[in-house]
Amino acid sequence: MRLFAALALCGAAFLAQAQGQASARETANRVAELLAAGDIDAVAALSNQPQRRKEELLEYRALVGEAEFRKVFAEYLSRPILEEYALGTRRLVIRDIVDASGKYVGQYFVERDGTFLMDDEPSPPRERLQRMLLDYGKPSPSGRKD
Q1: What is the DSSP letter of 139?
Q2: Tell me: the pLDDT tens digits for 63-81?
Q3: Euclidean distance between CA atoms 53 and 61, whole angstroms
Q4: How many CB atoms lie within 10 A of CB 71?
Q5: Which domains does the chain have, with CATH numbers?
Q6: How far apart are CA 83 and CA 92, in angstroms?
Q7: pTM above 0.85, yes or no
């Protein structure tokens, strides 16, 4: 069942790009650039929950310090985008970077009025994309990594 859902999402991503729909890649790269520069206010403005995003980023920066904050996001920016999956107006952008638990890192976006914002609101489509991210890179039943 997971494989079918993954294939459906892959197909949706292909169709979204093939039909000329907008991509969240530009916004994903802009967010990473702003984070690497330490511009939390500008990043928060690119979220559908700007106050929440700002608070989380300020908390993280206070925890690790300004220099480490910028270093972490500069590393993130240096990693290429591997995939973009579409589900209606929502997107999942996956970079070539894994977290401490060995899972790929992704960002969620939602299209509003022709612009992509970071999607910081829980929703059923976002939950489906989160499951897709958790399954990304895991071996399929055939033994291949999809």
Answers
A1: B
A2: 999 999 999 999 999 999 9
A3: 12
A4: 13
A5: 2-135 (3.10.450)
A6: 8
A7: no
